[in-house]
Amino acid sequence: MTAGKSSDAHRRKTGILVHGYNLHAGQWEDVAWGAPPERPGRVPMGVFVALSEQADVLVFGSGASEKDGLLESEATARLMRERFDELAGFTVFKGWDAEFARPPGNGRFMQRIESILHLDRGSKNTRDEIAHAGRVFVDRDVERVILVSSPTHLPRCLRDACTIYGEEGEMSGLLQELYAAPSVTGYPGYSAGDVTIFEPPHRPDRPGHPDHPGHPDHQEHPDRPGRRGADLSRVVSRAHNIPDIQRDRFVRRLDDLLLEFEV
Asked: What kind of fold does domain 11-186 have according to CATH?
């Protein structure tokens, strides 16, 4: 997405959701704010997208964690207000020098952001954030949705948004223009390349797909409905249901199994 390039886009109401980050997670401020000039966090990226896309509503999520009497969304908003003057130091705002310098400069941008800001104080997880923001967007007749989060989190956000907005009839219109804008900062010690994605099998030319000639079901049960082949996506998704107290044992046993297959 190239923000601010389409004049046609500006004629449609736009909603931005900046996903929250647990206040007790590692390096919270680094993930939320980042470091100029080349490492914009979720907040600077959210503000940039909101301003450049002339957004009608900007949602900060969520209420999942609390610290020093503030929920995630409230702490995020406080961080933005305290450091708003530093935004011009980020490369994404390159070319905005004249706007920042023109009186009242940052004050004008701050006023604009405050006028569209909505704090989510009730959501407890990513899916809740997306659903809550969706209701806000529908109430305000939003036609374009842009999700902002870390590159280590955004793929799941986009998947969940496609699922939730597809399941909720009143929100289905939000799927027509659903975009994602990643920050640079992510989970400490990880990068976008560490995100693992398992798609449902869809290529019959690859082993493991039930329609591949080498698959045992291909000849034996060619017309059996619901054949899934080596559907790792379903297997992996089941792992999310393992209770936290048993996950260490599961991972150790899985690692042993992978070693058995020499991977």
From this structure: Rossmann fold (3.40.50)
CA dihedral 111→116→121→124, nearest 10 degrees, is -120
Q: What is the pLDDT of residue 207?
A: 58
Q: What is the mean pLDDT of each run of 10 residues along the chain (263 residues)?
A: 48 94 94 97 98 96 94 97 94 86 80 97 96 97 97 96 91 96 95 90 67 55 49 85 94 94 92
CB of 100 within 8 A of CB of 106? yes
What pLDDT sits at residue 188?
A: 92
Would you call 2 exposed, middle or buried from its count of C-beta atoms within 10 A (0-12, 13-18, 19+)?
A: exposed
- Find the Cα–Cα–Cα–Cα dihedral 47, 49, 55, 61, rounded to 10°: -60
Q: Could you tell me the residue ranges of all domains in the chain?
A: 11-186, 198-260
pLDDT at position 234, please?
83
At residue 100, the pLDDT reads 77
Indicate the pTM of the whole model.
Answer: 0.85
Residue 203: partners with Cβ closer than 8 Å, 6 or more residues away: 209
